[in-house]
Design a protein that fits this description.
With 93 residues, this protein is mainly alpha-helical. α1 crosses α3 and α2 crosses α3.
């Protein structure tokens, strides 16, 4: 039961970090400048994607998932580090 609770917590943590990533990592301007438009159209043509908005969505979704994954890995590493230092024997000599 303890293992199930840990897994559920980890999944919930990752979903929460993904949600925060969706809120705060996304660029805040919604209209492309002329140079951005040319770049997205060129990249979508080069990759064979018909709509540059689809490419834009996939690129930002990937970036947001990478940010959430890095935050998750950092939190897990910090928690393990804290647990090791908390449980480590101390020298009281």
């Amino acid at each position: 039961m303890e293992t199930l609770a840990r897994r559920v917590f980890k999944v919930a943590l990752f979903i929460g970090l993904s949600y925060l990533s969706l809120l705060y990592v996304r660029p805040f301007h919604y209209e492309w400048t002329e140079s951005e438009s040319r770049a997205w159209f060129g990249a979508s043509r080069w990759l064979g994607v018909h709509d540059p908005e689809d490419l834009y969505f996939v690129v930002w979704l990937t970036i947001e998932l990478i940010a959430a994954t890095l935050a998750y890995v950092a939190i897990m590493w910090l928690w393990r580090h804290y647990q090791r230092t908390k449980c480590a024997p101390t020298d009281d000599s």
